């Protein structure tokens, strides 16, 4: 009598099935990926705003898979009166930030990360506070890719990165900004 072995095909199908299932299971915890022309935007997130704070921030990763540079020039959000692209830098030991009047260039083949302590989106005149767990829709405007809609995953007040990404490398905190920067 012969013992029936599983056929190669049935084993393959089981492995494939498990892989597909794993993808579905992994999907909800993976950061949203937004494609716009040659750009791929991932890890769009924000921080909860404490109390009656009227400004919020936004962070994301932009990869340019094309052969020409593009520029993030601005954007808008329903929740905010105004959205700007900012740069944060330490000058003579004082942390300052300023709007990037000429936008933020993403060179071809390069990835630019907006993260705490560096480039960021600034949301002014918040109409309601950003709460942990919220998804805040924003529209970004690129010189070539045009308008791109995505949503910011709101993390806790002191978060340094999107959920599950570990330490994003930023060690500066909005709470440590000079009082003059708060609005
Ligand atoms: Cu700012």
Topology (elements, then pairings):
Elements: H1 8-26, E1 34-36, E2 39-47, E3 56-64, E4 70-77, E5 80-91, E6 94-99, E7 104-106, E8 111-114, E9 120-126, E10 135-142, E11 146-155
Parallel strand pairs: 2-11
Antiparallel strand pairs: 1-2, 2-3, 3-8, 3-9, 4-7, 4-10, 5-6, 5-9, 10-11
Bound molecules: copper (II) ion.
Describe this structure in words.
- Helices cover 10% and strands 43% of the residues.
- Residues 25-29 and 166-183 have low confidence and may be disordered.
- It has 1 helix and 11 strands.
- It is globular and about 65 Å long.
- The chain has a domain at 34-155: PCu(A)C copper chaperone (Immunoglobulin-like, Sandwich), CATH 2.60.40.1890.
- By secondary structure, the protein is mainly beta.
- Strands 1, 2, 3, 4, 5, 6, 7, 8, 9, 10 and 11 form an 11-stranded mixed β-sheet that branches.
- A hairpin with an 8-residue loop joins β2 (39-47) and β3 (56-64).
- Copper (II) ion binds at residues 86, 97, 120, 122.
- Residues 1-31 form the signal peptide.
Overview features:
183 residues, mainly beta, Immunoglobulin-like, 11 strands, disordered C terminus
Put the structure in a nutshell:
With 183 residues, the chain is mainly β. The protein has a domain at 34-155: PCu(A)C copper chaperone (Immunoglobulin-like).
CATH architecture of the domain at 34-155: Sandwich
List the secondary-structure elements in sequence, H or E.
HEEEEEEEEEEE
Identify the bound ligands.
Answer: copper (II) ion
- The CATH homologous superfamily of the domain at 34-155 is termed PCu(A)C copper chaperone
Mean pLDDT: 83
Uncertain runs: 25-29, 166-183
Largest sheet: 11 strands, mixed
What characteristic shape results from the CA principal axes?
globular
Query: Strand tally, please?
Result: 11
Q: Do you know the CATH topology of the domain at 34-155?
A: Immunoglobulin-like
What structural category characterises the helix and strand content? mainly beta
Strand content: 35-45%
Query: Which CATH C-level class of the domain at 34-155 is it?
Result: Mainly Beta
Contiguous helical run count: 1
| Rg calc | 21 Å
Spatial gap, N to C terminus:
82 Å
Please bin the fraction of helical residues: 10-25%
InterPro entries: LpqE-like (IPR007410), Lxx211020-like (IPR058248), PCuAC_sf (IPR036182)
Biased composition (Gly residues): 160-169
Region (Disordered): 160-183
Biased composition (Basic and acidic residues): 170-183
